[in-house]
Design brief:
disordered N terminus, 43% strand, globular, 6-stranded mixed beta sheet, single chain, mainly beta, 1 helix, 167 residues
Length: 167
């Protein structure tokens, strides 16, 4: 019994720091546009930006990249009925505008299961961007398109280190 407790504590010391590096950022009704939303100072740091979106809800945030940084953005939803049964036209619309003004609409091109063990939550990956970034500030817009609430996550970055968020 003592060995089991010691083993569990040891695993906890290794797992907790890794999971906590994937920083959550929660958006609310005050974050209606990227300018009103938070700024992720380093867009290579791994953040999980969360928003509950229903028809007409708008949320936004910004993140910065430096020269030669990789743009890494993923769109996920919580894998729960009825949201996980919505058609693509009913799912939230996500656009990413780069510092030069180029707008990228995240296309729903997958439904890959992902279990996040730290929170015990099942997600569905819907879309991923992974390409060379442009130096400057990116703007992310999220718009709900159905009366069904959708727990939406935009994962930004890839480095599991602590990052700075400014409001």
């Amino acid at each position: 019994m003592v060995a089991a407790i010691a083993c569990a504590m040891g695993v906890g010391f290794f797992v907790a720091p890794l999971a906590s590096a994937h920083q959550p950022v929660n958006l609310n009704e005050r974050d209606r546009t990227p300018a009103q939303g938070p700024l992720l100072v380093d867009g290579t740091v791994s953040f999980a930006v969360n928003a509950d979106l229903s028809r007409g809800d708008k949320r936004g945030f910004r993140f910065q990249l430096e020269k030669n940084d990789t743009l890494a953005v993923q769109l996920l939803i919580v894998d729960q009925k009825p949201a996980n049964q919505l058609r693509p036209s009913q799912l939230p619309r996500i656009t990413v505008t780069d510092p030069n003004g180029k707008v990228i609409r995240m296309k729903f091109n997958e439904r890959t299961n992902f279990f996040e063990p730290y929170s015990g939550t099942n997600y569905l990956y819907l879309s991923r961007l992974n390409e060379r970034g442009v130096q400057g500030t990116y703007k992310v817009r999220m718009t709900g398109r159905d009366s069904t609430p959708v727990k939406t996550v935009i994962a930004v970055g890839y480095r599991e280190v602590r990052g700075e968020v400014r409001n």
